[in-house]
Amino acid sequence: MNTKALLRIVGLAALLAASFPVLSAEEGGLESAGINIRDTASIQRGAKWFVNYCFSCHSASYMRYKRLSEDLGLDEDLVERNLVFADVKLGETMEIAMRPQDAEAWLKKTPPDLSLVARSRGADWLYTYMKTFYKDASGHWNNLMLPNAAMPHVMWQLQGIQVPVWSEHDNGHGGQEEVIDHLTLLTPGLQTPEEYENTVPDLVTFLDYLSEPAKVKRKNIGIWVMLFLVLFAGISYLLKAEYWRDVH
Predict the structure, then answer these.
(1) pLDDT tens digits for 31-70?
(2) Which of 33, 132, 147, 197 could form a disulfide with 123 if both were Cys (CB 3.0 to 4.6 A apart)?
């Protein structure tokens, strides 16, 4: 296989890999989170939202406070004052005080650990999920992405209260059925819709970082590895040409 053919195959593989997230987002009706894992400021803000609105029920047991301090460039004292709400040391993991048996008794379900939720669900799913909570006809919280979710809308004070707008659609059997067309804001929250649009990506960026803290370093190393391979391929080709120049 010559060099040109190899480069074409590599380019096609990269193009196909890049298209998979786009296709899955469109097919699932997801909104693009548009997050940037290299945006340290966004991760810092997301950490604030996480510990204030998620951390009372959801652990992040694979993350240590000290690692959070090191990765995000935060002073340890700053982390202790703003992100640590229990009598724990920086070297400990982000565990909640609520015991599983108590959670089962109070909430009827143990809230899952969120360390890897971004890897299992994806950033776009989390982004859409946090934007599509609404109050249903019974007055309970519901969600377009996860109907009848056990989790209430913990950030409703920021976003406000949304309600569904219904419309009739063909059910495919010659009849009509009512489905949710979109959500509308009934009661404004502490943030404007534009501000909440910025808050959710920050939270999702933190969850994405949480799922793989070494992602930024891995991607940076990957770039240098690819550059090395390209350089090595060029040298190998020139070496091959030199060895076979006099062979007929």
Answers:
(1) 999 999 999 999 999 999 999 999 989 999 999 999 999 9
(2) 33
Partnered with residue 133 across adjacent β-strands are 143
Residues 204-214 have pLDDT tens digits of 999 999 999 98
Contact 234, 75 (CB under 8 A): no
Query: What is the token pair recorded at 184?
Result: 């509308």
d(CA 60, CA 31): 25
Predicted pLDDT of residue 23: 37
Helix (H) or strand (E) holding 100: helix 100-107
Across residues 218-232, what is the average pLDDT?
A: 86
Tell me the per-residue pLDDT of 116-150, one tens digit each, with 9 for 90 and over. 999 999 999 999 999 999 999 999 999 999 999 88
**98/110 Cα distance (integer angstroms):** 10
* Residue 116 φ/ψ, nearest 5 degrees: -120, 15
Q: Kindly calculate the radius of gyration of the chain based on its CA atoms and give it in whole angstroms.
A: 24
Would you give the DSSP letter of residue 240?
Answer: H
AA identity, residue 137: A
Instruction: Determine the angle formed by the axes of helices 40-53 and 193-211, rounding to 10 degrees.
Output: 100
Angle formed by the axes of helices 40-53 and 65-72, to 10°?
A: 150
